[in-house]
Specification:
Blueprint lengths: L8 H22 L1 H17 L6 H31 L5 H29 L1
Length: 120
């Protein structure tokens, strides 16, 4: 069992929050794609409040934007783990990184599709 898993209660929540903020900071400073998605969210999320759509539609418009951020965080985590294991080229490493990239492509496609369906 991991020695980092021993905390409980408020201490665990505070530690987890700190780790989450560290992860967001690492993604923002080290990943250009994450910064680009943050910019896209800074534009699209407020824009959704100015559109004449229902609350459910607005929630969907915002949810797909946030989903792309989540996918990018997971994609970056996969890439970091693969690079930590080895920087040499290996077919399985390429597959893992390509699948992470494909997941992000699907998430970005969802943004385009959902926004188009709701607005058009």
């Amino acid at each position: 069992m991991s020695p980092f898993k021993g905390q409980t209660g408020l201490k665990r929540i505070l530690n987890a929050s700190g780790y989450s903020l560290d992860g967001l900071r690492a993604a923002f400073t080290g990943e250009a794609a994450f910064r680009q998605l943050v910019l896209l969210n800074v534009i699209l999320v407020p824009l959704s409040f100015f559109l004449n759509v229902s609350r459910v539609e607005r929630a969907l418009l915002i949810a797909v934007c946030l989903l792309a951020l989540i996918v990018e965080l997971l994609n970056s985590a996969v890439e970091a783990a693969i690079d930590r294991i080895s920087l040499e080229r290996h077919p399985l490493s390429k597959n893992a990184k390509d699948m992470g990239s494909a997941a992000q492509f699907v998430a970005l496609s969802m943004i385009a599709l959902v926004w188009a369906v709701i607005l058009l």
